[in-house]
Amino acid sequence: DAGVIQSPRHEVTEMGQEVTLRCKPISGHDYLFWYRQTMMRGLELLIYFNNNVPIDDSGMPEDRFSAKMPNASFSTLKIQPSEPRDSAVYFCASRRAGGNTGELFFGEGSRLTVL
Amino acid sequence: SQQGEEDPQALSIQEGENATMNCSYKTSINNLQWYRQNSGRGLVHLILIRSNEREKHSGRLRVTLDTSKKSSSLLITASRAADTASYFCATDDSGTYKYIFGTGTRLKVLA
Predict the structure, then answer these.
(1) Nearest of A109, A94, A96 to residue A48 by alpha carbon
(2) pLDDT digits (tens, 9 = 90+) for A67-98
(3) Which residues on A lie below 8 Å from B43 (Cβ)?
């Protein structure tokens, strides 16, 4: 299996621009998570989905952020308009329901820089 | 804050020594997991311990869990330079699938 695939790996944009981050979870995984990592705040859970349905979006910082999962193999995290404080590494992770290890499988992350 | 706390924040040891890092969390849990993150990479799962377990081993890793104190420790024995990474604990918030990560410990193993 190819693992969780995220794109782009790096994105540099200017304040006010729209940013779209993409994630392809591992096939057969029922749960998908979006995390944000910064030095100041560590790893923050933004939102997670079960069977393509958003379960908890309480970590989404504000209305500028939105996430969708139109099907089991694709999710997006959109920031519109972007601001410099959104600069961070955004991780997508997936896992199967049940299972013995409860393991989350992470992508390599999308590093976002907003100038 | 949604996060737990880990200490120390940073740890530097010589190759061959043992490394111990601690994690405290805030909510009731079903299980606690430890992850490793190499610089510039995603997190990788190391080990899971369930709330009814007190200790678990996997290779050079030993994890303990004290639910009464809401704390866990990760011991890496006979450390190697390749163990240099950040280590995070993660808990399933009140038994949900909402995984909350600690602040992490940066481990540096000197050859």
Answers:
(1) A94
(2) 999 999 999 999 999 999 999 999 999 998 87
(3) 43, 91, 93, 104, 106
Q: Residue A39 gets which letter from DSSP?
A: T
**Which one of B3, B41, B45 has the shortest CB-CB distance to A42?**
B3
Residue of A nearest to B36 (CA): A106
Contacts 24+ apart (CB under 8 A), B51-56: none
- Hunting for tokens 């994690």 — which residue is that? B23
Output the pLDDT for position A74: 96
Report whether B34 contacts B105 (CB < 8 A).
no
Measured distance CA(A110)–CA(B76) in Å, rounded: 30
Residues A12 and A37: their CA atoms lie apart, in Å, by 16
Which residues of chain B make contact with A103, given a CB cutoff of 8 A? Answer: 33, 45, 48
A48 to chain B nearest CA, in Å? 8
* Residues contacting residue A38 through CB under 8 Å, at least 6 positions apart: A44, A87, A88, A89
* Residue A50: closest C-alpha in chain B: B97
What pLDDT does A12 receive? 98
Phi, psi of A84 (to 5 degrees): -55, -35
Pairing type for strands A42-50 and A53-56 reads: antiparallel
